[in-house]
């Protein structure tokens, strides 16, 4: 296997940070680290980056990466990293520092906090769609849809997950999806203002990670689900504001990044070159070209599967 990153997102403690789809406990996180240490060499982010740039990474060398500046990562995963003395990459999108509540994360919280099972949420979601003008379009598009072949790179998705993602990303698309979800949130009386400090790290948290020797990298400003569908200029705005805000927090410009939702194209690569970013990560192991902006990453869910643990 080629050198790669391991990608982490959500952590739970069943107390402050609730369990959600794909979230792991600190115990599971420690088991993953032990498993990785047995089978690979975990390098610090610094060393991994230096070796990646000199093309001297060995096949068994990996690094740990955390996307989306989530407070649960800082409060739950970071203490474990301290215990094992591992320095990681943290890919940060910056709109939460500007007071914007990123819908993707809010909606995820809503799904976990207000529903026992993800399929319960899906049912409620489709019930809501039935009350909208999009109903017949969604019904029609699903008639000939076969979930097995959609997003087949992501082996851990259930068919229900695939159908939901198809409806969200291919049929409704962001604007109309937001309309449906926002009306659901209103119906469930979700208190949006309380969520900002609950879900995301503060600037101080990011700065502390940086000072402690972790590498902070770009992840766009607003975390679009499809960067590749944006124009060159819009992509530049996304990554330039991201870079400027992070540079101000860190006192230096970040040199690494990961692609939100694995979405990028030739324009993204040009933007990253112009912004003097040195290294980028994908969100899966496909096309392991190890091109400088396309280093592969394995999702922690796939590691858990390899370990024989329930995802
Ligand atoms: Zn992300």
Automatic annotation (TrEMBL):
| GO cellular component labels | extracellular region
Q: Which residues cross the membrane?
A: none
Q: Which GO terms describe its molecular function?
A: hydrolase activity, acting on carbon-nitrogen (but not peptide) bonds; hydrolase activity, acting on glycosyl bonds
Q: Where in the cell is it found?
A: Secreted
Q: Source organism's superkingdom?
A: Bacteria
Signal sequence annotation: none
Keyword Signal among record annotations: yes
Q: Which GO terms describe its biological process?
A: xylan catabolic process
Per UniProt, the keywords (alphabetical) are: Carbohydrate metabolism, Glycosidase, Hydrolase, Polysaccharide degradation, Signal, Xylan degradation
What sequence ranges are listed for the domain NodB homology?
60-311
Q: PANTHER family attached here? A: POLY-BETA-1,6-N-ACETYL-D-GLUCOSAMINE N-DEACETYLASE, PTHR34216
- What is the name of this protein? Predicted xylanase/chitin deacetylase
